[in-house]
Amino acid sequence: MYKATVNVTLRTSILDPQGKAAHQALHNLGLKEVNKVRIGKLIEMDISADSEEKARAIATDACTRLLANEVMEDFEIIIHEN
Amino acid sequence: MSATFGVIVFPGSNCDHDAYHALAHVMNAKTKFLWHKDTDLSGIDFLLVPGGFSYGDYLRSGAIASFSPIMQSVVDFVNKGGPVLGICNGFQILLEAGLLPGAMLHNEKLRYVCKQIYLRCESTDTMFTRALQHGQVLQVPVAHGEGNYFIGEENLKRLQDNDQIIFRYCNAEGDLTPEANFNGSADHIAGICNENRNVLGMMPHPERAVEKQLGSDDGKIIFESILNELAVA
């Protein structure tokens, strides 16, 4: 069993207004050191597979077909052994 | 024989009855509801994918609905040349299903916007807009939080070159002012068609603009156009 953690974020070329608003709010709180904020989603999946490569292949398939819309989003997959 | 319209109902659709009312009661067209689990579209001449919050907008607007059982039949219907109109969430579903290019981002100012806006007809070369004049301005309501149309530059150029941009947001005079593009859409895009011109997706709600006492009946001409075309087909 593997656990896949997927981070889905808007593509860097696309303005992220939520991130921008949060960035502004952090500055208002005095955290001027924060230079950039991007907000995305985190998706966790438990995957039955007999190797890490297979688990990654399944997670990638899930991302390209449903979990991310590659017109506007990028995704990053981290696989952990469970 | 008069044409039969099918209005697809997903869990969370909420403009399905508005669409039914506009078609069946205002336009006097033969109309039936189709449940998202239906797969048999025989006898249907025109499909309308209505607005709402299918599947609660989980994951992304329209993403889950695009995998509903009926959607494979919709794809087959489109490939055979069948006409489909997606309104608001219906447009988002057609984008997610890959029947139209691009994607929807949150409105630029992150606010849900519900108001009357103006649309300019940019192409009369579709069955949905044949009865309109090029440049005609329609007053139609919008109600969405994710209507900021996004498409990569190359694909935007393809839409422009192929005359696939059907409606743009404008002001009452028909000018493309920055304020008129209230949701931040690429190139003021409010509605596009596919390359074969039988699928139209639009964020504004023409089905809610078919009776003067409800603010505007400017949307009616789109349904008149569709009915004219189906009558001669």
Please outline the helices and strands.
The complex is a heterodimer of chains A (82) and B (233).
Chain A: E1 2-10, H1 17-28, E2 41-47, H2 52-67, E3 73-81
Chain B: E1 4-9, H1 16-26, E2 30-35, E3 46-49, H2 69-79, E4 84-87, H3 89-96, E5 103-105, E6 113-121, E7 137-144, E8 148-150, H4 153-161, E9 165-170, E10 189-193, E11 199-202, H5 220-232
Parallel strand pairs in B: 1-2, 1-3, 3-4, 4-11
Antiparallel strand pairs in B: 5-8, 6-7, 6-9, 9-10, 10-11
Please sum up the structure shown.
The complex is a heterodimer of chains A (82) and B (233). With 82 residues, chain A is α+β, with helices and mostly antiparallel strands.
Strand order of the largest sheet of chain A: 2-1-3
Distance between the termini of chain A: 5 Å
Q: Quick one: which chains have the greatest interface?
A: A-B, 11 and 16 residues
| Element pattern of chain A in H and E | EHEHE
Q: Classify the helix fraction of chain A into a percent range.
A: 25-40%
Kindly estimate the percentage of residues of chain B that lie in beta strands according to DSSP: 15-25%
Q: Roughly how much helix do the residues of chain B carry, as a percent range? A: 10-25%
Number of helices of chain A: 2
Give the strand line-up of the largest sheet of chain B: 2-1-3-4-11-10-9-6-7
Biggest sheet record of chain B: 9 strands, mixed
Overall average residue pLDDT of chain B: 97
What's the total count of β strands of chain B? Answer: 11
Are there runs of chain B of 5+ residues with pLDDT below 50, and where? none
Search tags:
heterodimer; A: alpha+beta; three-stranded antiparallel sheet; 3 strands; 34% helix; 30% strand; B: 233 residues; alpha/beta; nine-stranded mixed sheet
What does this structure look like?
The complex is a heterodimer of chains A (82) and B (233). Chain A is built from 2 helices and 3 strands, in the order βαβαβ. The radius of gyration of chain A is 16 Å and the shape is elongated. A 3-stranded antiparallel β-sheet of chain A has the order 2-1-3, with helices on one face. Chain A is of the alpha+beta class and 82 residues long. The longest helix of chain B has 13 residues, at 220-232. The radius of gyration of chain B is 16 Å and the shape is globular. Classes of the chains: A alpha+beta (82), B alpha/beta (233). The interface between A and B is medium-sized, with 11 and 16 residues.
